[in-house]
Amino acid sequence: MERKEFIQLFGLGAVALLSGGCLGGCSSDKEEVKPGPGTTPGPTKIDFTLDLSAAANAALQDPAIGYVYGADGQVIVAKTTADTYLAVQAPCTHQGTPVAFFPAQNLFICPNHGSAFKPDGTVSNGPAARALTKYTVTQTGNTLRVTS
């Protein structure tokens, strides 16, 4: 076998090997379907409490941070500069990256593509086109209850 024939056969073998792996991955019965842009929904059945005196929630009292995640990271609870609490869905409606709260700007901002949301969840700056789902926050003493 000459060098040219070897390279041609080697190249065909590599193409066949790589194509088989790609095609096999495309036909999986367990393919995960991810939401497309603008379709990331917020959780619908929310009901949890946060103890404001718990160390895990201390970031809420820190004026530089002012937020924590709840409901397994699906909800962000924030404290505004007006000392009120609010909660919205944590995944950005654009592509699902968790948003963060910036107390000085009074905005939820997605670090991925820069979408910004007002405290009521409405879009302030795209590329997100849909508002964040907003939840009800009720404070009783040192306890916050977040519900949908």
Question: What is the element layout, followed by pairings?
Answer:
Blueprint: H1 3-26, E1 47-51, E2 67-70, E3 75-79, E4 85-89, E5 100-102, E6 107-109, E7 116-117, E8 123-125, E9 134-140, E10 143-147
Antiparallel strand pairs: 1-10, 2-3, 3-4, 4-9, 5-6, 6-7, 7-8, 9-10
Structure, described:
This protein has 148 residues and is an alpha+beta fold. It has one helix spanning 3-26; strands spanning 47-51, 67-70, 75-79, 85-89, 100-102, 107-109, 116-117, 123-125, 134-140, 143-147. The strands form 2 sheets. The protein has a 6-stranded antiparallel beta sheet with strand order 1-10-9-4-3-2, with no helix packed on it. A 4-stranded antiparallel beta sheet has the order 5-6-7-8, with no helix packed on it. A hairpin with a 4-residue loop joins strand 5 (100-102) and strand 6 (107-109). The longest helix is centred in the first third of the chain and has 24 residues, at 3-26. The radius of gyration is 23 Å and the shape is globular. It starts with a helix and ends with a strand.
Quick structural overview:
The protein is an alpha+beta fold.
Q: Give a quick account of the main beta sheet: strands, pairing sense, barrel closure.
A: 6 strands, antiparallel
| Model regions low in confidence, pLDDT < 50 over at least 5 residues | 6-37
* Assembly category: single chain
Q: Whole-number average pLDDT?
A: 80
Give the total of beta strands: 10
SSE pattern, N- to C-terminal: HEEEEEEEEEE
Strand order of the largest sheet: 1-10-9-4-3-2
Number of helices: 1
In whole angstroms, the N-to-C terminal distance is 72 Å
Percentage of residues in helical conformation: 10-25%
Radius of gyration, in Å, reads 23 Å
Q: Which structural class matches the secondary elements?
A: alpha+beta
- Identify the overall geometry: globular
The portion of residues forming beta strands comes to 25-35%
